[in-house]
Amino acid sequence: MKTIFVATVAIAGLCSAYPKAARDWKPSDLGDSRSPCPLLNALANHGYLPHGGRDLDRDTVLGALKEAVNIDRPLTDIFFQAALNMTVPLANATELSLHHLIQHNAIEHDASLSRPDAFFSSHQDVFDPAIFAETRSYWPDPVISVRQAAAARLGRLQTSNRTNPAFELNKTGALASVAETAIYLIAFGDVEAGTVRREYVEYLFEHERLPLELGWEKSKFVLTQAHLEAMSGRVVAETNSLLHGASVMDATADLQSPPAGDEL
């Protein structure tokens, strides 16, 4: 996979009783800038990013992801630069706002785990409970495995392809989709086992809040590009297995772009 696209959306979903790194949480206010990414929104709600979500420079974004979830600065820098290039409508921009990431088919894409397709709504910054209910239906156990995470992503692709007459998943979107799944597995779960507690992921998506109250702690080691690429590869492998195995879900033959393999 092309590193820049994998990294782009990987980054493209803390009270005195918790660790000292914790920050108070406040939900977004009317007029705040928010993105399709629950993790970035959570960082703004916690104050790692400015609560308004606007005019974010490189050092602010790199520092926020390092402090909050221990993602290393080089990986975040790839994301930040790509986001500037693809979503900010200003030449030589040095800052972005979270709402810039809503631009369809730049970083945001069809078949989100928790947002409506652009054909149905322009509010990709807003969590959609019905869409997330479909995603959750593929997580029957208290711990989500890589296979279940891949199944949820694939199920959303199939539903979107079947119901959205303007469905499109270009290569950037496909790689972003894989990376988004990989990032919640590595940032909130066990990197080696490829598992994550379901309640952590649900809490992040539903509340746009880090799941510290549930016992989650940020990784004790720095999460790098190598971790992201390795987990992305595992998601792709499980996707291929689902597509070609007996448990394959309906409509796989009709996926427009891409149909299978590393493109997914």
Automatic annotation (TrEMBL):
InterPro entries, sorted: Chloroperoxidase (IPR000028), Chloroperoxidase-like_sf (IPR036851)
Gene3D superfamilies: Chloroperoxidase-like (1.10.489.10)
CC cofactor: heme b
Signal sequence bounds: 1-17
Domain Heme haloperoxidase family profile, residue spans: 21-232
Family from the record: Belongs to the chloroperoxidase family.
Name of the protein described by the UniProt record: Cloroperoxidase
Taxonomic lineage from the root: Eukaryota, Fungi, Dikarya, Ascomycota, Pezizomycotina
